[in-house]
Write a structure and sequence with these properties.
By secondary structure, the protein is of the alpha+beta class. The protein is 46% helix and 13% strand. The protein contains 17 helices and 14 strands. It has helices at residues 3-10, 28-39, 69-81, 92-103, 115-123, 170-180, 212-223, 233-240, 257-265, 286-289, 300-329, 337-346, 354-374, 377-397, 403-417, 422-442, 444-460, and strands at 14-16, 21-23, 45-52, 56-63, 109-112, 127-131, 137-140, 186-193, 199-206, 252-254, 269-273, 279-282, 462-463, 466-467. A five-stranded antiparallel beta sheet has the order 3-4-6-7-5, sandwiched between helices. The radius of gyration is 30 Å and the shape is elongated. Mean pLDDT is 84; it is low at 1-20. Belongs to the GerABKA family. The chain crosses the membrane at residues 308-330, 404-424, 430-454. Keywords: Membrane, Transmembrane, Transmembrane helix. InterPro entries: Spore_Ger (IPR004995), UPF0353/GerABKA_families (IPR050768).
Length: 509
């Protein structure tokens, strides 16, 4: 649950479990026994017993492999063992304060008087210190994880721009955002998700730009997540989106810090989850799915041309096989005579109608694409290229499909690869089969019906209250400068109207 809900639980001094009730005690033997009853059966829990100032008993607990060992020894245990007491008599509270301010040199340290927070901190990789006579736990943030280096994201390859990407460590990802955006209004709020996993996450936004109602809405939806384990942002995405039945993504994911910064300065809220390099940004519009980060890095002529190609590719990825089926099956008169004779010649001897022919080829290419993803990279690339060539050529030679059908399916596959957002390209691949079925039943009229239904759905779709099709609908001509074309940066002085922001003017232009 979110940190505020956890804080309410931590206000209690009693932690109830299915078997027993644990109370915080001043007796160190009782405290150690209670901790061992909870985690003592785990062999990776290390307990170090020693004495503070030569006579006061203390016990240290940490999880082996999650902590900085030399830091614990040099900055916690040694200062406590060599601690020389003064003649002053310390109460428990005074002793804790004296130890924290004058003895231990560790920077990140906290106190708690509840087993809930103490055990959660221990399981998170922090070090737990218990001192005899002190009815509190001391918690030291000694976490140190083995992590993958900062590498270029493989899911979002670009020609021009920064090459670094997020990794699986939460604080590293937050650091990458902080390094680029040094605004003091950049707000980062931490919490945990999952009843058992207690996975750390961060809610990131810019105070003064992002609408506070949007922040509260995202925070509320995250606080409603109630499950044992959350290991990837894809799980969060499915729970917090507005319409779970829609095939269109309502939350955008990315591995790129520069794309995340652009989203933050556009008034979006970012969710960063520990254990995954993919961060979530919300709300989004359909236009966001068609943009790439490097659009702002190239001159506006180049970026505008590429964006127009993307919208054309999106149309082809959805409707091209359906158009072929409709033309071949119902509307041969609409095809130029020479082209119609050429298509008829290539289809001579093909035993299947256009729909079956297209369906078999599309399914085959989808299988090849999925096989290429799941196999090791060198083998996967070979399977995708060689498999497509061999199967396509063999199918044509066997007379099962026509050469024109192979060309249509190949162009459709290439068009789907041109979409920047992978999750919406999958959506287009799914819609393609619906268009093919409709065109096989009703011809061009079926394609028009599906097109209208898709637009009706998109116009009614919302992403955290923002219009999904803005600025197409509601129509806002002033924002078309950054839509299907990208105008010169000096002309784009206003931020998008969706989501609604507190500061509509760009200060950097």
């Amino acid at each position: 649950m979110y940190r505020r809900l956890l804080k309410k639980l931590n206000e209690q001094k009693v932690r109830e479990t299915d078997e027993y009730t644990i109370e915080v005690s001043k007796d160190i033997a009782t405290m150690v026994e209670s901790i061992n009853n909870i985690v003592g059966e785990s062999d990776d829990i290390v307990q170090r017993n020693f004495k503070v100032g030569a006579h006061l008993k203390a016990s240290l607990f940490f999880v082996d492999g999650l902590v900085f060992d030399s830091g614990i020894e040099d900055r916690i245990i040694k200062p406590l063992i060599y601690f020389a007491e003064t003649n002053k008599e310390f109460t428990a509270e005074q002793l804790v304060e004296h130890v924290l301010t004058e003895v231990i040199t560790y920077i990140e340290v906290a106190e708690t008087d509840t087993f809930d927070e103490a055990i959660l901190s221990l399981m998170s990789g922090e070090t737990l210190l218990v001192i005899d006579g002190v009815e509190k736990f001391l918690i030291f943030d000694t976490r140190q994880f083995n992590q993958r280096g900062i590498e270029e994201p493989e899911s979002e390859v670009i020609v021009r721009g920064p090459r670094d990407g997020f990794n699986e460590v939460l604080h590293t990802n937050v650091m990458l955002i902080r390094r680029r955006l040094r605004d003091p209004n950049l707000t980062v709020q931490f919490g945990q998700l999952g009843r058992r996993s207690k996975t750390d996450f961060a809610l990131v936004y810019i105070k003064g730009i992002t609408n506070q109602d949007l922040v509260e809405e995202v925070r509320y939806r995250l606080s409603c997540l109630d499950m044992d384990m959350i290991s990837e942002t894809g799980v969060i995405e499915q729970y917090i989106e507005d319409n779970v039945l829609s095939p269109f993504p309502q939350v955008l994911r990315t591995e790129r810090p520069d794309k995340t910064i652009n989203a933050l300065t556009s008034g979006k809220v970012i969710v960063v989850l520990d254990g995954t390099p993919f961060v979530l940004m919300a709300p989004i519009t359909f236009n966001d799915l068609m943009k790439a980060t490097e659009d702002n890095y190239d001159r506006w002529h180049i970026s505008s041309f590429i964006r127009l190609l993307r919208y054309l590719a999106a149309f082809m990825a959805v409707f091209l096989p359906g158009l072929y089926i409709a033309m071949v099956s119902y509307h041969q008169g609409m095809i130029p005579t020479v082209l119609a004779l050429s298509i008829a010649g290539t289809r001579e001897g093909v035993p299947f109608p256009g729909f079956i022919e297209a369906f078999l080829m599309e399914i085959t290419f989808e299988l090849l694409r999925e096989a290429g993803i799941r196999l090791p990279r060198p083998i996967g690339q070979t399977i995708g290229i060689v498999g497509g060539l061999v199967i396509g050529d063999a199918a044509v030679r066997a007379g099962i499909v026509s050469p024109v059908m192979v060309i249509v399916v190949a162009i459709t596959a290439i068009a789907s690869f041109a979409i920047p957002a992978y999750n919406v390209s999958i959506t287009f691949r799914l819609l393609r089969f619906g268009v093919m079925i409709s065109s096989a039943l009703f011809g061009l009229f079926g394609i028009v019906i599906v097109y209208i239904l898709i637009n009706i759905h998109l116009v009614g779709l919302r992403s955290f209250g923002s219009y999904y099709t803005s600025p197409f609908a509601p129509y806002k001509f002033g924002e078309w400068l950054d839509l299907m074309i990208r105008a010169p940066l000096v002309l784009m002085k206003n931020r998008p109207s969706e989501p609604r922001m507190l500061d509509e003017k760009r200060k950097d232009i």
